[in-house]
Amino acid sequence: MAKPISMEVWNPSGKYRVVSTKSMPGARWIRLLTDNDCRLEICTDPKTILSVDDILALIGDRCDGIIGQLTEDWGEVLFSALKRAGGTAFSNMAVGYNNVDVEAANRNGIAVGNTPGVLTETTAELAASLTLSAARRIVEADQFMRAGLYEGWLPHLFVGNLLKGQTVGVIGAGRIGSAYARMMIEGFKMNLIYYDLYQATRLEKFVTAYGQFLKANGEQPVTWKRAATMEDVLREADVISLHPVLDKTTYHLINPERLAIMKKEAVLVNASRGPVIDELALVEHLKANPMFRVGLDVFEDEPYMKPGLADMKNAVVVPHIASASKWTREGMATLAALNVLACHLQSFRGQQLI
Ligand SMILES: NC(=O)c1ccc[n+]([C@@H]2O[C@H](COP(=O)([O-])OP(=O)(O)OC[C@H]3O[C@@H](n4cnc5c(N)ncnc54)[C@H](O)[C@@H]3O)[C@@H](O)[C@H]2O)c1
Ligand SMILES: O=C(O)[C@H](O)CO
């Protein structure tokens, strides 16, 4: 087992030992735990990604509940160790839980929580930012300016794509996909085509009502279509944003065959999970199609990019920051603490937790 790693301790005399593998924004989550008789231990090790051995050392001999991160591998080894340490609750500080083996948690009697909702708008806003940055070549133009290359206005300088009246395609029209669709429809009057396993009824109703509003005001109404296949979205849309969960059905959902059917000047955005795109195939596609642009928040082998991606001018890349607004990150931390309290510490029954 790895040597014990550095910890910051809050409320040392608390009855329940709760561990957080990372420091998280805000003070509310700390207050919630310490006000509810928890001894909170926050790992302060500077290592960005903790290994399974590091986390085993954090769990130790006694741990009632633990808050972990999406970069960690939560499987049988950690859940059985948590069970042996007397723990019954784990919360990921993320809505995505592809890093968590829920069956292993169930086998060990560990309740699992995630942090949906508080990051919906923030993540959708970042997807919208990536869409605009890619469509209007913002990063390329910024680099050109800073390099002192601007000699004056030119008709062909950094010509990109107009969004208004074009079609936005959303794959995975859940909370974030629907919020993104609304932003693009309301903000840029784009038409919608979406693909999801389930019907996005509220989104459809919104687009219908907004279309009627535009028409009543003498403007071109927006439209929506639920696609029968993902390929229909890829063929028809000018902008495609990916928002599904990552599981077996969405792994490499964007592959060479599907890239080939997309418009040559399409914009592809991914703020879901990296492995939803076959990133090596994407690099080849970007090389062969300089007018095809992508905006990526997530990568197949984080923190790394596949060879060649960093050299592509038609790619905008940011380091998994889609949920990084202060309000959202504090909300995620608060939800994670509540998950541990609500799932695990039965003695708090009846207490006001918020
Ligand atoms: N980049 C980031 O920082 C960031 C932030 C938040 C969430 N995410 C990712 O976004 C995902 C979505 O979050 P959400 O809150 O919108 O979740 P959600 O559950 O509300 O939406 C996911 C949608 O994907 C759909 N889906 C599942 N399998 C599909 C398939 N095979 N084809 C098409 N659609 C499919 C589901 O039906 C659902 O509507 C998370 O699971 C997470 O991985 C990333
Ligand atoms: O799934 C999530 O919540 C994100 O990737 C981080 O906010």
Give keywords.
12 helices; binds nicotinamide-adenine-dinucleotide; 354 residues
Characterise the protein shown here.
- Residues 129-322 form the D-isomer specific 2-hydroxyacid dehydrogenase NAD-binding domain.
- Keywords: Glycolate pathway, NAD, Oxidoreductase, Peroxisome.
- One of its GO terms (biological process) is oxidative photosynthetic carbon pathway.
- Its EC number is 1.1.1.29.
- Pfam families: 2-Hacid_dh, 2-Hacid_dh_C.
- The structure is a single chain.
- The chain is of the alpha/beta class.
- 36% of the residues lie in helices and 15% in strands.
- It is built from twelve helices and 13 strands.
- The strands form two sheets. The protein has a seven-stranded parallel sheet with strand order 9-8-7-10-11-12-13, sandwiched between helices. A six-stranded mixed sheet has the order 1-3-2-4-5-6.
- Helix 3 (76-84) links the parallel strand 4 (65-68) and strand 5 (89-92).
- The two termini are 37 Å apart.
- Bound molecules: nicotinamide-adenine-dinucleotide and (2R)-2,3-dihydroxypropanoic acid (DGY).
- (2R)-2,3-dihydroxypropanoic acid is lined by residues 70, 94-96, 119, 323.
Can you lay out the helices and strands and say which pair or pack?
Layout: E1 7-10, E2 16-20, H1 28-35, E3 38-43, H2 52-59, E4 65-68, H3 76-84, E5 89-92, H4 102-107, E6 111-113, H5 120-135, H6 138-146, E7 167-171, H7 175-188, E8 191-195, H8 201-216, E9 224-226, H9 230-236, E10 239-242, H10 256-261, E11 267-270, H11 279-288, E12 293-296, E13 315-317, H12 326-344
Parallel strand pairs: 2-3, 2-4, 4-5, 5-6, 7-8, 7-10, 8-9, 10-11, 11-12, 12-13
Antiparallel strand pairs: 1-3
Helix pairs in contact: 1-12, 2-3, 5-7, 7-8
This protein binds nicotinamide-adenine-dinucleotide (NAD) and (2R)-2,3-dihydroxypropanoic acid (DGY).
